[in-house]
Design goal:
mainly beta; 45 strands; WD40/YVTN_repeat-like_dom_sf; binds dinuclear copper ion; Methylamine Dehydrogenase, Chain H; nitrous-oxide reductase activity; ten-stranded mixed β-sheet; Cupredoxin; binds (dicuprio-$l^{3}-sulfanyl)-sulfanyl-copper; oxidoreductase; Immunoglobulin-like; copper ion binding
Length: 654
C-alpha cells in the first residue's frame, strides 16, 4: 500500500512539473505573421466559412462560433437555465429540465456531435451529453434550440457520449461510473464484480429525430471514458475506451492505474440490434424522463418512462470483444476510412492504434488472451495496427484531416502532434497555450473531414489574456492545417469550458436556418393571434393574461383588478412576422427571468404580486425607435378589494 502511494505521488509530481513548466514558457506568443491575421479576418458584414459548436463544459450549454474568425454568435441553452432566453424559466421550457431527480437546472455538457447521413455530416441536429445527471440532448439546427432531452437510466457520469453512427441510427451514451444496476443500498467496498456499466444505444427517428432508448448493454464494472462509431468498413461497430479495469472504488489515481493495459471495448451493435429485434434482451423497471419541445405549440412536455430493455453481452455471442490498450486510454477515435481505432493511453509513452481488419481476423481465428467476465479479450498483438512512438506526453484525443493524417492532443506536453496513418511517423508538432484537451477538425468525426483548420480547446489560459480576477477566460486556438506544417492563427475566448466541439461548413446550415415562426401555425393553447382576441381571464386566484406584442406596444397595456395573492400568468404572443424582431418582457418583482419572444411565438411567465400598487412592465429587447415607449401598467389591489377585472389599450379604464 505504501509503495503504491509513493509511486502515485512520484507520478503526480512529474505531471505537475510538466504542466507548470509548460505554462510559464510563453515562447512564441505574439510571433504570428501578418498573413495569419489575414487568414482569420472576416470583413465586416461577411460570413464565416464554418460553424463551430463548442460545448460549454460545466456551463451546461453549447455555443456557436464562426471559423476562422472565432466570433461568438449564440449561446444555446441546453442543460442549464438561461435567464437571457428564459430557457428553464418560462412555463414552456421548464419541462425540458425535468428528470427522475426532479427539476435539475444545471449539467456538465461535454461532447457535441452533428448528425450524419451516409457517413457525412448533414447539419440537421447536434447531440450533446449531460454528464452529471445523465442526459442526451438534441438541438435542432434550423432553430438553434434544444428540442429534446432524454435521461439515461442505469448510468452515472454520462461521459462516453454523445456520438452518432453513420446514418444517425443511434446516438450512443456510455457511463463513466459503474454503479449497482438496478441502484440499491450496498457497501461501496463490494464494488468489484457487482457494479456494472451501461452502454446505451438511443435510436433516432430518421424523419423527426425523436430519441428512444433501444437497448442498454450491461457491461463489467469498468469506467467507460470515450467512444466512437465505426464507419465505412467498420459501420455497425462501436468502440469504447475503458479505464479502471481494476474495478477500484477509492484513491483511483493510484488504484485505477495499476493495470498495464485497460481495454477498448468493441461492440457489434448491428448484431445486438438484430438480437433485440428478434425479442432478445430483458425488460427492466426504470424511471427516466423524456422531454420533448414541440415547435408548433412552442411548449415542452415531460414524460416519465418506466422500463428499459437491457442486454447481457454474454447472451449475444460474437457481439462484444475487448482490445487491450496500454495505460488508461482516454480518447478512442476512428479514422475516416473506419480501419484505424486510436487509443490514447493517458499514462503511456506511445499511442496505440488498432486495425479493424486485424480485429475481425483475430475474432475469426479466436486469437484470444482470456476473457473478462466471459467477454473475450483479443490478443494484444493480433489487433495491433501500429504504434506511434513517443509522440508526446499525456495523449488525449485524435482527429483526422481526410488526407491520411491524424492530429493528437497532448495534455502534459501541451501540444498538437500531427502524424501519418499507416507509417505512424510524427510529421509536425505545434505548442498549445496551455494543456490542450480536445481538438476539432470540422467533419473530423465522419468519413469526410474538412481538413482546413483544427481548433484546440485548452484547459488552462494563464497569461494569454488580460487578467479578470482569479478566473481567467477559457480559450480555444485555431490552427491552419492546409499545408504540411500547422500554423497557429488565433486565440479566442470561449463561454464556459470549451470541452469539445463539432464543426461543419456554414453552407450546410445557413440555407435551412429558420427566420421566424408562422403565426398561423402557432398551436400554443394560450396563443393570441390578433389584438382583438386579447383578454384577461380570472379562474379563482389564477389570472391568465392573453397579451400580444407588436412594434411598439403591448395589448392590453393597462390592466386592473389583479389582487395580492393572485398567480398571474402572462401568456404573450409576438405578432411580428419579420426576421429578427423579438420582443422581451418582464415586470417588477417577478421571481423569474424575462421572456424573449420570437416572431410568431407564445411564451408564458408567472408573476405573484406581493404588494398593492401600480406596477409597470416593459419590453426588454430594443426593438424599434419607440422601444422605450413599449411599456404598460398593472394595478394591484388588496386581496379583499372589489376592483373589477378590466383591461385596455389606447383608452382609459373608467
Ligand atoms: S473528455 S479532455 Cu470529457 Cu471529452 Cu477528454
Ligand atoms: Cu419591443 Cu422593445
Amino acid at each position: 500500500m505504501k509503495n503504491i502511494l509513493k509511486s502515485a505521488v512520484a507520478l503526480l509530481s512529474v505531471l505537475v512539473a510538466f504542466t507548470s513548466c509548460n505554462n510559464t514558457s510563453n515562447s512564441n506568443a505574439g510571433a504570428l505573421s501578418s498573413s495569419a491575421a489575414e487568414k482569420v479576418y472576416v470583413n465586416p458584414g461577411e460570413h464565416d466559412e464554418f460553424y463551430a459548436f463548442i460545448s460549454g463544459g460545466f456551463s451546461g450549454q453549447l455555443s456557436v462560433y464562426g471559423l476562422p474568425s472565432g466570433r461568438l454568435f449564440k449561446v444555446i441553452p441546453v442543460f442549464s437555465q438561461d435567464a437571457e432566453k428564459a430557457y428553464g424559466y418560462n412555463e414552456e421550457t421548464k419541462p425540458m429540465l425535468n428528470t427522475s431527480h426532479g427539476f435539475v437546472p444545471w449539467d456538465d455538457s461535454h461532447h457535441p456531435d452533428i448528425s450524419q447521413t451516409n457517413g457525412v455530416i448533414d447539419g440537421r441536429w447536434v447531440f450533446i451529453n449531460g454528464n452529471n445527471t445523465p442526459r442526451i440532448a438534441k438541438i435542432d439546427l434550423s432553430t438553434f434550440e434544444t428540442t429534446e432531452i432524454i435521461e439515461v437510466p442505469n448510468s452515472a457520469g454520462n461521459h462516453s457520449s454523445s456520438f452518432v453512427t453513420e446514418n444517425t441510427e443511434y446516438v450512443v451514451a456510455g457511463t463513466r461510473f459503474s454503479i449497482p444496476i438496478p441502484q440499491k443500498d450496498m457497501p461501496i467496498k463490494d464494488y468489484k464484480g457487482n457494479f456494472k456499466g451501461a452502454l446505451s444505444f438511443i435510436s433516432v427517428d430518421p424523419e423527426h429525430g425523436h430519441m428512444d432508448i433501444k437497448f442498454q448493454l450491461i457491461m463489467p464494472g469498468f469506467d467507460y471514458d470515450l467512444s466512437h462509431p465505426g464507419r465505412g468498413k467498420s459501420h455497425g461497430w462501436f468502440f469504447f475506451s475503458t479505464y479502471n479495469t481494476e474495478e477500484a472504488s477509492t484513491l483511483m489515481e493510484v488504484n485505477a492505474s495499476q493495470n498495464d493495459k485497460d481495454f477498448i471495448a468493441a461492440v457489434n451493435w448491428k448484431k445486438i440490434e438484430e438480437y433485440v429485434n428478434n425479442g432478445g434482451g430483458t425488460m427492466m423497471p426504470a424511471n427516466y424522463a423524456h422531454n420533448v419541445y414541440d415547435e408548433s405549440t412552442h411548449s415542452a412536455t415531460s414524460t416519465m418512462i418506466k422500463e428499459v430493455l437491457t442486454v447481457n453481452p454474454l447472451d449475444v455471442p460474437g457481439a462484444v470483444f475487448l482490445m487491450p490498450t496500454p495505460k488508461s486510454p482516454h480518447g478512442c477515435d476512428v479514422d475516416p476510412t473506419g480501419e484505424y481505432i486510436v487509443g490514447s493511453g493517458k499514462l503511456s509513452a506511445n499511442l496505440t492504434v488498432h486495425s479493424f481488419t486485424k480485429m475481425l481476423a483475430a475474432i475469426e481465428n479466436e486469437s484470444f488472451a482470456g476473457d473478462a467476465y466471459g467477454i473475450p479479450i483479443i490478443d494484444f498483438e493480433a489487433s495491433l495496427a501500429g504504434v506511434v512512438e513517443q509522440p508526446g506526453l499525456g495523449p488525449l484525443h485524435t482527429e483526422f484531416d481526410g488526407k491520411g493524417n491524424a492530429y493528437t492532443t497532448f495534455f502534459i506536453s501541451s501540444e498538437v502532434v500531427k502524424w501519418k496513418l499507416g507509417t505512424w511517423e510524427v510529421v509536425d508538432r505545434q505548442p498549445c497555450y496551455y494543456s490542450v484537451g480536445h481538438l476539432m477538425i470540422p467533419g473530423g468525426n465522419s468519413q469526410k473531414p474538412f481538413g482546413k483548420y483544427v481548433v484546440a480547446m485548452n484547459k488552462i489560459t494563464k497569461d494569454r489574456y488580460l487578467p479578470t480576477g482569479p478566473e481567467v477566460t477559457q480559450s480555444a486556438q485555431l490552427y491552419d492545417i492546409s499545408g504540411d506544417k500547422m500554423e497557429l492563427l488565433l486565440d479566442f475566448p470561449t463561454v464556459g469550458e470549451p470541452h469539445y466541439a463539432a464543426g461543419c461548413p456554414a453552407d450546410l446550415i445557413k440555407p435551412r436556418s429558420k427566420k421566424l415562426f408562422k403565426l398561423e401555425e402557432n398551436n400554443h393553447p394560450y396563443a393570441t393571434k390578433t389584438e382583438a382576441d386579447t383578454k384577461v381571464v380570472r379562474e379563482g386566484k389564477d389570472v391568465h393574461i392573453y397579451m400580444t406584442t407588436i412594434r411598439s406596444h403591448f395589448a392590453p397595456d393597462n390592466i386592473e383588478g389583479i389582487k395580492v395573492g393572485d398567480k398571474v400568468y402572462f401568456h404573450i404572443t409576438n405578432l411580428e412576422q419579420d426576421y429578427d424582431v423579438p420582443h422581451g418582457v418582464s415586470i417588477i418583482g417577478a421571481n423569474t427571468s424575462e421572456l424573449l419572444i420570437m416572431p410568431g411565438q407564445t411564451e408564458t411567465f408567472v408573476w405573484e404580486p406581493k404588494q398593492v400598487g401600480v406596477w409597470p412592465f416593459y419590453c426588454t429587447d430594443f426593438c424599434s425607435a419607440l422601444h422605450q415607449e413599449m411599456q404598460g401598467y398593472v394595478r394591484v389591489s388588496a386581496a379583499n378589494s372589489s376592483t373589477p377585472l378590466r383591461w385596455s389599450l389606447g383608452e382609459d379604464i373608467e
